[in-house]
Specification:
Elements: H1 17-20, E1 27-28, H2 40-52, H3 62-76, E2 85-88, H4 91-101, E3 108-113, H5 118-125, E4 129-134, E5 136-140, E6 143-147, H6 150-156, E7 161-167, H7 179-191, E8 195-199, H8 220-223, E9 226-230, H9 233-236, E10 244-248, H10 251-264, H11 270-282, H12 284-308, E11 313-314, E12 322-326, H13 338-346, E13 348-349, E14 351-352, E15 363-367, H14 372-393
Parallel strand pairs: 1-13, 3-4, 3-7, 7-8, 8-9
Antiparallel strand pairs: 2-10, 5-6, 9-10, 11-12, 12-15, 14-15
Helix pairs in contact: 2-11, 3-11, 4-5, 12-14, 13-14
């Protein structure tokens, strides 16, 4: 069937954090969820589960576990046993769990910046020291390209570093790291005796010609050090149902994670299991159509910015639906951030790049997973705020 991604769905009355965070005249293009209805198969499965009418404890879903084992084998070259999957209520919860499990208070957690803000917050919540290595960035015309800077990693790691947190595909820069980069990262982590939490939540949101490689697929040695984190939430627009999963092949790490989860009483709800199984089993056609639509949105946004806001440079994401915008060449008044300027003058809400670490200052992140008309409306608002600066400067 053909899915309709053009029709705008009103979300303000739905409890949506994305749409209620700001005033009613602000267009939200920030938090990473889509303005698209979930696949019909998911909605039907949830309707059937609700009509059953009983919502008792639901701690596991063997059919989902079996589906994921096959999916991991076919798509990610990871072969595991059923008990090596741990269901968790979201990836942010998992980042906090892993930060707590690895090392002791005062130990270091290393990551690559700019980075999804919970990577910087979760270790601090567990009294760990955040250590950062900036990605290397180059510019080709109005395109930005990021790569792993191994010299920066070597400069940042210390004898106290215990955990490395990877985001692949990377949020916010949209990279799908190459096999060569990941092999270099594997060698680095093995040499420095690091455990790896690999957030791969965007691994299914790939554009044509791109490939996702799971770090744990490279060798048994690195798989033994990996806690691979995935979820259907970004892929099928289900974040409010709070289901993710960790793949852990190291028996000691697996036991520690399960024990900590039990101690915290942090489990997935019944509707999350229902939605995840339906999405993975029957949602691929929806995803294929959504990715074609998102690719067109990506190109629409890039062309518009290139033509109408030439002082702004952008990434061209290989995955995700998030565009990373460098606004440092835009002359802003005083010390105002581009986030504040576009919000106040354009009434469009983006993510402030400063929240993604020091290399994100002067940047904003734009979520284009919405109807094309809404994307264009948001860009027009940004252009209005951008043009006002040029007029005042002139």
């Amino acid at each position: 069937m053909a899915y309709d991604f053009d029709t705008f769905v009103e979300r303000r009355a739905s409890g949506s954090e994305k749409w209620r965070q700001f005033d009613h005249d602000v267009l939200p293009m920030w938090i990473a969820d889509m303005d698209f209805k979930a696949p019909d198969a998911v909605i039907a499965a949830l309707r059937g589960r609700v009509e059953h009418g009983i919502f008792g404890y639901h701690f596991d879903e063997p059919a989902l576990r079996d589906n994921l084992i096959e999916r991991l084998r076919l798509r990610h070259a990871i072969t595991i046993n059923p008990d090596e999957i741990v269901f968790i209520p979201g990836l942010v919860t998992a980042l906090n769990f892993v930060s707590h499990l690895i090392g002791v208070p005062g130990d270091g957690v290393l990551t690559l910046t700019p980075i999804y803000p919970p990577f910087l917050k979760a270790p601090k919540h567990q009294q760990r020291i955040v250590q950062t290595a900036p990605l290397a960035v180059t510019r080709d015309g109005q395109r930005l390209h990021y790569e792993i800077d191994f010299d920066a990693l070597e400069a940042a790691v210390t004898p106290q570093t215990r955990l490395f947190m990877l985001c692949n595909p990377h949020n916010p820069v949209g990279r799908t790291f190459t096999r060569a980069e990941l092999e270099g990262l594997s060698e680095f982590c093995l040499r420095h005796d690091l455990i790896v939490a690999s957030d791969e939540i965007h691994c299914d949101l790939l554009y044509p010609g791109e490939q996702h490689i799971s770090l744990a697929s490279l060798s048994p040695e690195i798989a033994n050090r990996c806690i691979t984190l995935m979820a259907p939430s970004k892929t099928f627009n289900l974040p409010g149902l709070a289901l993710g999963f960790a793949v852990v092949q190291n028996s000691d790490l697996l036991k520690r994670l399960r024990d900590h989860q039990t101690g915290m009483g942090s489990f997935v709800n019944a509707l999350g299991y229902t939605a995840a199984l339906a999405a993975y089993r029957d949602g691929q056609d929806w995803l294929d159509q959504a990715m074609r639509y998102l690719e067109q949105n990506r190109e629409t946004a890039i062309r518009f910015i290139d033509e109408h806001m030439p002082d702004i440079t952008t990434t061209r994401p290989q995955a995700t639906y998030l565009l990373w915008l460098d606004c440092r060449a835009v002359s802003l008044p005083g010390d105002k951030s581009p986030y504040a300027h576009f919000l106040e003058q354009g009434r469009v809400a983006l993510n402030d790049g400063a929240a993604f670490g020091e290399p994100g200052r002067g940047f904003v992140r734009l979520n284009y997973a919405t109807s094309r008309d809404t994307v264009i409306q948001g860009l027009e608002r940004m252009k209005s705020a951008y043009d006002a600066l040029r007029v005042s400067a002139g």
